[in-house]
Amino acid sequence: SDQERTFVMVKPDGVQRGLIGEIVSRFEERGLKLVGGKFMRIDEELAHEHYGEHEGKPFFEGLVEFITSGPVFAMVWEGQDAVAQVRTMMGETDPAESAPGTIRGDFGLDLGRNVIHGSDTEAGSAEREIELFFDDDELLDYERVDETWLYE
Ligand code: DAT
Ligand code: MG
Hints:
It catalyses: a ribonucleoside 5'-diphosphate + ATP = a ribonucleoside 5'-triphosphate + ADP; a 2'-deoxyribonucleoside 5'-diphosphate + ATP = a 2'-deoxyribonucleoside 5'-triphosphate + ADP. About 40% of the residues lie in helices and about 20% in strands. It is α+β, with helices and mostly antiparallel strands. The chain is globular and about 45 Å long. It starts with a strand and ends with a helix.
């Protein structure tokens, strides 16, 4: 099996709307393993680093303002093809184009308030974001009791 880690974050709108538990539950029930979690406020500098690829785009300043506007719940999830599986479970970037059953399709309506972040599948993205938000000693290695039943 292709075990990998991905960075996920409940954005300030998701925190304010009480969706942390619901979102964590979906990944837990899917079989992904939580290896790190942090309730935190993103400062301006971290926001610029995290969303560096979007610097200069018309929505960038609004995006930074939004992501720093309140606490977020940052996480690292591990599992088979975790990066792509999380992206599939999130839906499209625009909640309006996201299928029901996806997180953005079930809990969002507006592009600028799309509840959740997950690393994209481009090589190195997940590793970069995990390092940006977590120290090595904040990521835990352990076995979940259901692993022998989750994976062949
Ligand atoms: P994703 O979050 O699906 O990886 P992205 O990396 O392209 O999407 O963009 C990061 C965030 O920026 C996205 O979650 C919402 C916001 N955003 C993207 N495109 C936008 C646009 N055209 N107008 C307003 N906000 C946008
Ligand atoms: Mg992205």
